[in-house]
Amino acid sequence: MSVNKIEKTFALTTPLYYVNDLPHIGSAYTTMAADVVARFHRLKGSSVLLITGTDEHGQKIQRTAQSKGQPPQNFSDQMSAGFMSLWELLNIQHDRFIRTTDERHQAIVEEFFQRVWETGDIYLGQQKGWYCVSCEEFKEERELLSGHRCPIHTNKEVEWRDEQNYFFRLSKYQTQLQALYQEFPDFIQPESRRNEVLNFVNQGLQDFSISRVNLEWGFPIPVDPKHTIYVWFDALLGYVTALLEPEETPTLENALSKWWPINLHLIGKDILRFHAVYWPAMLMSAGLPMPNQVFGHGFLTKDGQKMGKSLGNTLDPITLVKCYGADAVRYYFLKEIEFGKDGDFNESRFINVLNADLANDLGNLLNRTLNMVKKYCAGNVPPVTNEDIPKDHPLKAIGLRLGEQVKDAYETLVFSQACEAILLLVQASNKFIDEQAPWTLYKQGQQQALEQVLYAVLESVRLAAYLLSPVIPNISSDIYQQLGFGIDFNNQVQTSIAAPFTIHSSWGILTNQNKFGEPHPIFKRIEQPKNG
Ligand code: MSP
C-alpha cells in the first residue's frame, strides 16, 4: 500500500491554516517544526518539498468575513498574506504555499471527487448532529462539555444540524485502514496518537458527510451544485494541488507524478482523525498510494488551555520574533517542548533558556575561545589535526558519536533530544576549557597542549553549530563564518555541496586552512523584564 521512494526525495506538509484570523504561535509551532525537518533533510542532501498554505473555505471563514463586513475572498487574501509574512519572519523555507481558493485547486478537487463518485463511495443521506463551526466537525453528544460546548473550543456552543448531505462511505474502509495501521506501525506517530486512532477505528467507523447546504463559500458538488463541498474534503486535497509545478495543468496525474506519496504530514493532535482516518480512506477510494507518516504533535497551552484563535488566549509570534529574533523563537519551542506532548509557554523561562544555552554555553564559549586563539596563537587555527587527538579524548569521544545520535533524533522528530545532545557537547567543552586552563598552559609555555585544547573546543563548537543549523540557521551561519567556513546555512544548495553531511557531521574536520573571522558575540544576552 505504501510506496517507499528509492530516490532521495522528501515531501512534507504543515496543515493548511484556517484564515479566520492571523497566525498565532500555535500555528507557527507546526511550521517551525516542519522547517526544521525540511532543513535537516536538505542538509543530508535529499531534495525536499515543504508544503504549507491556507485553508480558506467553509462556514467558519464565511462567518468571520461576514462579521468583519468583508467578502470572504478579500478577507482570506489579507489573512493569507499574514501567514506568508510570518513565515518569512521566522525564516521558514517553504517550497509551496497553497491557498485552497487557488483556481487550480478546484480542478483537482473535482477530478478527485469524480474518482470517488465513480467508485460508488458517495451517496445522498440525512445528516443529524451537533456541529462545531470552529472545528468544522460534527461531534458526538458524549464528547460535549456542559452547555453543549465543544471540548476543544470550550467557549463555543455546538449547533444542531438536520440536513441532506452527501456522504462518503468511510465504513467500507474499516478493515483496509486497520490493515494499513498494522502493516505500517509508523504510519501514525507518536505511539499515544496511534493508540488513540486504533481505539477510534476499532469502535467502528461511520460514514461522514462531505457536503453542506446553505453555504456558498466553497466549491459546488459537481453532480449537484446546490451542495457545497465540505471544507475538510476540499482542504486535504490542497496537499495534492500543492504538488503541481507552477505552470502545470491541474490534473491528478500531473500533481502526483513527482512527489507523491507525501513522506510526512505534520499536524496538531486535534486534526488527527482527519489525517489518519478520513484522508487515507479517501485516498484508498481514489486508488492512490498512502502517505508514509502522520505525526500529531501536542498543543502549546497557556495556563493549561490550548492556545487558539477561537479562545483568544494566544501569543503573538510577530512580537516575539521582533523582540528576540527568529532563531531564539525556533530554538525555544523545539528544544523546550517535547514534540508530541503539550507544553506551556512562560516568558521568563523562555528568557532563561536562551540566555543559558545560546548566550552563555554556546556564545561565550566560541567568543572566549576565539579570543584566546587571537592571544595565544596569533589568530590562526592551531596547527593540530584530528589524528593528533586520541579517540578517547573527552570531547572527541562525544563528538564522534554525536552526528549519528542527532541524525536519529531529527529523523524520529525528537527535536528536544537532538538539541539536548548537542548542548551536552557544548557544556562538556566549557567544562574542559575551565579544567585545562589554557591561560596557565600558556604561562607554562606548553604551547602544544594549549593548541590541542583550543582546537578540540573550536571543533566541538563547529560540530554543534552544524548539527543545530536546522533549528538556528542564522546563529549557525555566524559561527561557521567566524570559524572561517564561507557557509550560509540559509543557502542550502551551497551548503549541501560545500558542507556535506557525511563530512561535516563528524568530529575533526577543522584544519589550519581555515582563516578565522573577527570574534563577535553570536547571541546577545536578554535582560529579564523588571516586573517579570
Ligand atoms: N484548516 C485546518 C487544517 C486543514 S489541513 C488540510 C486547521 N487549521 S487550524 O488553523 O485551525 O490549525 C492548524 C494547525 O495548527 C493544527 O495542526 C493545530 O493543531 C495547530 N494549532 C492550533 N493551535 C495550536 C496550539 N495552541 N498549539 C499547537 N498547535 C496548534 O485545523
Automatic annotation (TrEMBL):
Question: What are the recorded Gene Ontology BP terms?
Answer: methionyl-tRNA aminoacylation
Cofactor(s) required for function per UniProt:
Zn(2+)
Q: What is the role of this chain?
A: Is required not only for elongation of protein synthesis but also for the initiation of all mRNA translation through initiator tRNA(fMet) aminoacylation.
Q: Is Nucleotide-binding there in the keyword field?
A: yes
Q: Where is the Methionyl/Leucyl tRNA synthetase domain?
A: 149-370
Pinpoint the tRNA synthetases class I catalytic domain residues.
19-141
Organism of derivation: Iningainema tapete BLCC-T55
Its gene name is metG
Instruction: List the SUPFAM superfamilies.
Output: Anticodon-binding domain of a subclass of class I aminoacyl-tRNA synthetases, Nucleotidylyl transferase
Q: What class of enzyme is it?
A: ligase
Lineage per the UniProt record = Bacteria, Bacillati, Cyanobacteriota, Cyanophyceae, Nostocales
- Give the keywords, sorted: Aminoacyl-tRNA synthetase, ATP-binding, Cytoplasm, Ligase, Metal-binding, Nucleotide-binding, Protein biosynthesis, Zinc
Q: Which InterPro entries match?
A: Anticodon_Met, Met-tRNA_synth, Met-tRNA_synth_2, Methionyl/Leucyl_tRNA_Synth, MetRS_core, Rossmann-like_a/b/a_fold, tRNA-synt_1_cat_dom, tRNAsynth_Ia_anticodon-bd
Q: How does it assemble?
A: Monomer.
What is the name of the protein in this document? Answer: Methionine--tRNA ligase
Q: Does Aminoacyl-tRNA synthetase show up as a keyword for this record?
A: yes
What is this enzyme's catalytic activity, as reactions? Answer: tRNA(Met) + L-methionine + ATP = L-methionyl-tRNA(Met) + AMP + diphosphate
> What family classification does the UniProt entry report for this protein?
Belongs to the class-I aminoacyl-tRNA synthetase family.
What region holds the Methionyl-tRNA synthetase anticodon-binding domain? 407-527
E.C. code: 6.1.1.10
